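Support request, priority: normal
Reporter: lab tech (M.K.)
Component: structure prediction queue

Hi team, I submitted a job for RNA polymerase-binding protein RbpA from Saccharopolyspora taberi yesterday, and the status page still shows it as pending. I've pasted the exact input below so you can check whether something in the sequence is tripping the parser. The sequence length should be 135 residues. Please let me know if I need to resubmit or if it's stuck on your end.
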Amino acid sequence: MSKLVGSRGYGISLETFGDYEQAPRQEVFYTCPKGHRFEVPFAADAECPPTWECRLHGTESEIVDGSEQKQVRAKPPRTHWDMLRERRTDDELKQTLLDVLVERRRWTRAAAAQTLKITEPAYRRKAQLRAKSVR
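Reply from support: The job had stalled in the queue. We restarted it manually and it finished. Here are the results:
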């Protein structure tokens, strides 16, 4: 790596500091929960955040002399139930629930009857075999 002779590397600018003004800034002070107070520079027209991470402790620090900014409440996420209630009335939902329960009971009874049809002959055969062995 080559270095410029007589300079301190590329760490500093080689421009001369002439006739120009820096952008207007504001210094905002924050205090961390451990009592440490520090300042953060912002542009003059920037909106300062109400909290900032402390450089020493990594904790969330509160702004010191700024007015309390209102926290904007985000809308809670809509659930499936919320969207369903937007489309249906309570009476429609009750009727739908009853229809589903009736259909489920009908299905359960049919499944139980089918199970009995399958297993009933096996029980009869076992009973007949037991009866023959007892004689």
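Residues 90-134 form the longest helix (45 residues). The longest strand covers residues 25-31. Let us know if anything else looks off. Ticket resolved.
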